[in-house]
Amino acid sequence: MPRSTLTADQIIKAAIDQLDEEGLDGLNMRALGKRLDVAATAVYWHIKTKDELVRLAADAVWAEVQLPDPAAIGWRAAAVTTATGTHEMLARHPWLGQAFGGYLLYGPGKSRYDDHCLAVYETAGFAPADADRAAAAVFTYILGSALAPAALVSLNRRLAKGGADAERSLTEAMEHAVEIARGFPRLRERLGSPAADYAAAPDSSFEFGLAAILDGFEARLARSGRGAAG
Predict the structure, then answer these.
(1) Does 214 share its domain with 107?
(2) Sequence-distant (≥ 6) Cβ neighbours of residue 204 within 8 angstroms
(3) Counting beta carbons within 10 angstroms of the beta carbon of residue 138, is it exposed (0 to 12), middle (13 to 18) or buried (19 or more)?
(4) pLDDT at residue 108 in the model
(5) Is the pLDDT of residue 44 over 80?
(6) I want to staple 117 with a disulfide (CB 3.0 to 4.6 A). Which of 11, 135, 156, 167 is the partner?
(7) Cβ–Cβ contacts within 10 Å for residue 83, how many?
(8) Whole-angstrom Cα distance, residue 138 to residue 126?
(9) CA 125, 126, 131, 134 torsion: positive or negative?
(10) Residue range 92-148, pLDDT digits in tens
(11) How many structural domains does the chain have?
């Protein structure tokens, strides 16, 4: 593809695909150029650094999250739809949660998302400062829930590159972890259940935690007399 026909949008889309497949460590201009069938210099012509590329890719994926109008469907339904969509988006792009720790991420996509979340919790009845806190609490919960599966993706990618030695190390580590868990009664009861798998959680854990947070918000609003219809 000639440099003159390559666009920033094409580069960003290819970067997202590369990140989904190879993670943050697998993204570089040479690999991206190969994916786009151009020289790495053609990519640099549009986007100068990896940091900028990650920022643009990260901002683009926020458009995948549905942002329903809380005035139309009620604040709680909007909160659930937004939070669930965000959790699903982070699962599709496990590198994004990790990027928060190493890159400066901002842009219109994330700003639109943040503004929507504030609208949801203001519609619920929170004053602006408390709407900020409510949105931050929910987002922190979503991000935390997504980190373990994202870490597992990275681990599996690393183990795949490490071959038999890496797989053997994982097997030995898991056997040792089970051995340790047998010494604790509640963990021992759960051995063999889905929740005992590495980085796993019981079914519907995300939904349970989100409902508990929103229940707490509703109770707080009711006590203050500021609650809106859910």
Answers:
(1) yes
(2) none
(3) buried
(4) 98
(5) yes
(6) 135
(7) 24
(8) 14
(9) negative
(10) 999 999 999 899 999 999 999 999 999 999 999 999 999 999 999 999 999 999 988
(11) 2
Q: Which residue segment(s) compose the domain that 39 sits in?
A: 3-48
Three-state DSSP at 197 gives coil
Q: Indicate whether 230 belongs to any domain.
A: no
Q: How far is CA 229 from CA 69, 70, 126, 201, 222, in A?
A: 14, 10, 12, 32, 10
pTM: 0.85
Tell me the CA distances in angstroms from 198 to 173, 184, 189, 208, 220, one per residue in order.
11, 17, 16, 20, 36
Q: Within 10 A of 203 (CB to CB), how many other CB atoms are there?
A: 11
Indicate whether 55 belongs to any domain: no
Spacing of C-alpha 153 from chain mean position: 12
